[in-house]
Amino acid sequence: MQTQTELSRAAFKATHGHDAGQTFLTGPQVQERYQKSHVTLWRWIRDPDLAFPQPMKINRLNYWRLSDLEQWEAAQAMQGAA
Fold this sequence. Notes:
By secondary structure, the protein is an alpha+beta fold.
């Protein structure tokens, strides 16, 4: 029997699989990317001034498009340079 996480991943791949040509990151992967806790990510999502990309929710789990995160990073770098 599959666990809820395995079912969520299977549903995600079926809905947004590799055919879309996009890479998606899970919450823990985003936490690792920025070296931040889940609470910090929760705050970033709710801060309109920060404009952090909104996740897609599938079975209560968050997934971010890597391309959205990279665009946000580029915008942050431009703000820092200004």
